[in-house]
Design brief:
The complex is a heterodimer. Chain A is α/β, with parallel strands linked by helices. Chain A has six helices and twelve strands. In chain B, 50% of the residues lie in helices and 11% in strands. Chain B is built from 38 helices and 17 strands. Chain B has a six-stranded parallel beta sheet with strand order 1-10-7-4-2-3, sandwiched between helices. Chain B has a four-stranded mixed beta sheet with strand order 8-5-6-9, with helices on both faces. In chain B, strands 12-11-13-14 form a four-stranded parallel beta sheet, sandwiched between helices. In chain B, strand 5 and strand 6 form a beta hairpin. The radius of gyration of chain B is 28 Å and the shape is elongated. Classes of the chains: A alpha/beta, B alpha/beta.
């Protein structure tokens, strides 16, 4: 890694990468998460409970464990992400029993909640993390970068089988 | 495939007109994206990733039986099933049985070239299943009942307007689908319902990881994720060559695949799935039940690994590298001919573009590869584009050689042996032997010039050459010089009394018999810079026969050329080469034709002429001995193989240093490439490719001197612009002072 990169604040670089993908992001303190989700999430919304001990969607305006009809009708889907890549604006969404995969895929907006301390510098660092996760037996992830898109219909269009918009909520660490 | 599928002039003309514009625009967009993305990440980093990716593939293919075994154990331990299918029929039968066991009425698929290869859709539909392609490009191709024309963008030969017309005709929608947004929304809705209803989801697998039994899927649309996670049953279909050891080895490929394919840093979705996944199944038949409709569906996963010729390819020394391919399409995008006609001409039953010859020869057979193999001109622009460093031109040459055999039985009885004194077994087509033996033609032509030139230019001779040899009558023929470069040099006293360096100038066939002026200029330039120059008695490098797939002849020429040149190298001479395609022989192809020691010694002792001039100037030679550029404008077209070797910059730098204002062409290839543009069925394609170069140089041609490094490039430029193209070394000629 170059020195210039090392000096960069990973959160700032992550947000810059997201901005390059036309993906908005919000930075909040842990106790502001509920309010931030109120602002960002479009209703009706569904969610997959966050993979963090100290953060929850219990107070967020989302339906957890939704019915298929609720999943289909949702405007937003909220999931957690335990790893982000600063240089790419990528978030890792795990395929868990909470349904992160479908919650992040069906609604037209995917809202991903990530902790600032979980942001890695680049793909090489991300693979260090992935290898450790694989060894720990967690072995199904999608590395998602921006909204789904296609050029197959004659021009670049966002929102194909996956979300048309992505919003990343970065939770600052307790200090 | 029938003869009508062969790339004859009519078929190419039709494709140029019907699909050329879209293919051009889209492949060039991908190709430019690749250049930008490589620059962004840094050439060094990219090169390291390529080297690592290549090592991983070499190792994985070497250890394939062991990795298949490991994959099976891992997938079974996870609760899935692995089936290794011998061929298409075996794979299709197995997948149909899986669907039948699930009582499936419909299947949704994520784009997979491997399932195209085995014609899975037809097999399942014959069994009464509804099959839907969910990748939008693949969906377009399915609705249009066509085959994909590109590995990455199956429908990139179609315009938005054509897709609108197709969808409105097939689906009769309530509203007009007159924008990309509306088309996408329609397809999302239509296919979304089918994904929700399907019992079985079929995906490919870009990579299979043996240690954990995981698969990696690369997509932008999100359809692969849905196909893999919504239906209870997931079938992943992949060639056995897709296996890598573990997630650790995925890293360089994750870096390379999208960058090489579309110029993206990373795909929108890089999924690493270890099925059966924990994601709850969604039961859309119980729409109001919480927990995703109960979420109690039993997940079932089948990994179908397909051989279908691959194990034989692994044993085939020349085809084995094909198995390293990661299907990024960079070889197609970087190919000037592909950019013009696309995969419906430059492809076989499944695979298209540069690497397609290797795939089709291995999977379908040489007869399928033959349909399009000649569209590879060997320009080598794909060599540096390939993320795993596959020598694609060599594979194409080997397959061409195999195709040649037995094509023209009885030909030996018909013609004078003298014109084709090659090493080929009987059966090699006459026209290929004609082009492959151009050296003999040149020798005769020169000996009988100017009569030979006069005769060759008559209408009768041109008609005969067109009908017998396939030399297009619209193309100007090279004019042979009576005095060869070798003869001219032999008559000449050396002008350098106390030489700094001694040079053996390689008299390639063109420089010796046709473009003697550039050879003479090279001698005078090198002398002016303090070199003693000799022009040794050496024959052709073997480039011409190699281009025709005549490997035995090329090998014999290579041995002769090396035997003649190496004594000079050993005596301290530097070998200087004017024609870039011949230098490329020494540096690249001789690796395959000669023993390693011989090739290395020749390679290390050889230089491209402007590369050499650059070196002389760097080492203190006096640039004032050469005519100054005085700000004069030059439009410079380098040469494909020269660029692949990274030598373009020397010419630019030397011209720049002499004070020229240099504009360099940025096209992949001029479209001529050796004998290609002379062949009647390819003439129009050659000119279509050249059009891009003409467009760039035309506005400049009045104010700039047009120079080109390669013989073919000069001929093409002379055909496209007003004649007068020269080799850059001619600008440096001291006689111009």
């Amino acid at each position: 890694m170059s020195e210039g990169r090392a000096a960069t604040d990973p959160v700032a670089e992550f947000r810059q990468s997201l901005s390059d993908l036309d993906t908005p992001s919000t930075v909040v303190a842990p106790d502001e998460l509920g309010a931030a989700l109120e602002d960002v999430v479009e209703t009706p919304a569904v969610g997959a409970e966050l993979p963090f001990d100290d953060l929850s969607l219990a107070d967020a305006p989302v339906t957890l464990d939704p019915s298929p009809a609720q999943l289909r009708a949702a405007a937003s889907g909220v999931t957690g992400s335990r790893m982000g890549i600063a240089s790419l604006g990528t978030v890792a969404v795990e395929s868990r029993a909470e349904g992160d995969e479908v919650v992040g895929l069906y609604p037209s907006q995917h809202v991903a909640v990530i902790k600032a301390s979980d942001i890695r510098a680049d793909l090489a660092d991300a693979f260090d993390w992935l290898r450790a996760e694989f060894e720990a037996g967690r072995r199904s992830f999608v590395l998602a970068t921006g909204p789904s898109s296609t050029g197959d219909m004659g021009a670049l269009v966002q929102g194909v089988h996956g979300p048309e918009a992505v919003h990343i909520v970065i939770v600052r660490d307790n200090e | 495939m029938s003869d009508s599928q062969r790339p004859d002039a009519d078929r190419i003309r039709t494709l140029l007109a019907s699909e050329g514009d879209e293919i051009k625009e889209n492949t060039r967009l991908f190709n430019a994206g690749r250049y930008d993305a490589v620059k962004d990440v840094g050439e060094d980093v990219h090169e390291r990733n390529r080297t690592r990716a290549r090592e991983i593939k070499e190792d994985a293919i070497e250890r394939l039986p062991e990795l298949i075994h490991q994959t099976r154990n891992a997938v079974e331990a996870n609760g899935g099933t692995v089936y290794v299918a011998d061929d298409a029929a075996d794979a299709n039968r197995y997948i149909a049985e899986v669907a039948e066991a699930k009582d499936a009425g419909s299947v949704v698929k994520s784009k997979s070239m491997t399932t195209e290869e085995i014609d899975l859709n037809e097999a399942l539909e014959d069994g009464g299943l509804e099959v839907w392609e969910t990748d939008l490009g693949e969906f377009v191709v399915q609705v249009a009942e066509e085959s994909p024309s590109h590995i990455v963008g199956p429908s990139l030969h179609k315009s938005r307007e054509e897709i609108t017309e197709l969808f409105e005709r097939e689906f009769d929608p309530d509203e007009p689908l007159d924008s990309a947004q509306k088309l996408t929304a329609f397809a999302r809705e239509f296919l979304g319902e089918r994904i929700d209803d399907a019992e079985v989801g079929i995906t490919g697998a870009n990579f299979v990881m043996a240690e954990s039994g995981s698969i990696a899927l690369v997509t932008n649309e999100g359809n692969a994720r849905k196909c893999a996670s919504i239906p209870d049953t997931h079938v992943a279909v992949a060639g056995i060559e897709k296996i890598i050891p573990s997630v650790a080895e995925l890293e360089p490929f994750a870096e390379l695949i999208s960058r090489s394919a579309t110029g993206q840093e990373i795909p929108q979705y890089l999924s690493l799935l270890t099925p059966p996944v924990d994601t709850p199944t969604v039961d859309f038949d119980r729409p109001d039940e919480p927990g995703f409709g109960g979420g109690d569906g039993e997940r079932d996963f089948h990994l179908v690994l397909i051989d279908n010729g691959r194990r034989a390819m692994r044993q085939d020394e020349d085809l084995r590298e094909t198995l390293y391919c990661i299907r990024c399409g960079a070889c197609a995008n970087s190919c000037a001919n592909f950019q013009s006609v696309g995969g419906h001409a430059f492809g076989g039953e499944t695979y298209t573009g540069g690497i397609a010859t290797g795939w089709e020869a291995g999977i379908e057979g040489n007869d399928v590869a033959e349909e399009f193999n000649d569209l590879c001109t060997g320009c080598s622009r794909c060599v540096n584009a390939c993320p795993v460093k596959i020598d694609i031109p060599w594979i194409n040459t080997v397959v061409r050689d195999r195709i040649n055999r037995g094509k023209d039985p009885g030909f030996d009885d018909l013609l004078v042996d003298g014109l084709v004194p090659d090493e080929e077994e009987s059966g090699t087509p006459l026209r290929k032997r004609f082009f492959g033996n151009f050296e003999t033609v040149a020798k005769l032509g020169s000996a009988t010039a100017p009569l030979s030139n006069a005769v060759a230019s008559t209408g009768i001779a041109r008609k005969a050459m067109e009908s017998v040899l396939g030399v297009d009558a619209r193309r100007d023929l090279p004019e042979f010089e009576r005095t060869t470069l070798k003869d001219w040099a032999a008559e000449r006293e050396s002008r350098v009394a106390d030489p700094d360096r001694r040079v053996a100038l390689y008299p390639d066939v063109y420089t010796n018999y046709v473009q003697t002026e550039r050879g003479k200029a090279a001698v005078r330039v090198l002398e002016a810079l303090g070199c003693e120059v000799v022009v040794p008695d050496v024959g052709g490098s073997g480039r011409a026969p190699l281009s025709q797939g005549m490997i035995a002849t090329a090998e014999s020429k290579a041995e002769d050329a090396a035997a003649s040149l190496l004594p000079y190298v050993e005596e301290g001479y530097d070998v200087v080469v004017v024609e870039p395609s011949d230098l490329a022989m020494f540096r690249r192809e001789y690796e395959k034709l000669l023993d390693a020691g011989t090739q290395e010694r020749l390679d290390e002792g050889s230089y491209e002429v402007l590369e050499y001039v650059f070196g002389l100037l760097e080492n203190g030679a006096d640039a004032d001995a050469l005519p100054a550029g005085d700000g004069h404008g030059v439009a410079y077209h380098s040469h494909c193989q020269q660029r692949t070797l990274g030598l373009e910059t020397y010419t630019e730098t030397v011209l720049d240093r002499l004070g020229y204002d240099v504009l360099t062409s940025d096209v992949e290839c001029c479209g001529m490439a050796g004998s290609f543009g002379y062949k009647s069925e390819y003439y129009e394609l050659s000119m279509d490719v050249g059009e891009t170069l003409a467009e760039q140089f035309e506005p400049e041609a009045d104010e700039r001197t047009v120079v080109a490094s390669g013989t073919s490039c000069m001929e093409q430029l002379d055909a496209l612009l007003s004649p007068g193209t020269r080799h850059p070394v001619e600008l440096l000629d001291p006689v111009r002072r």
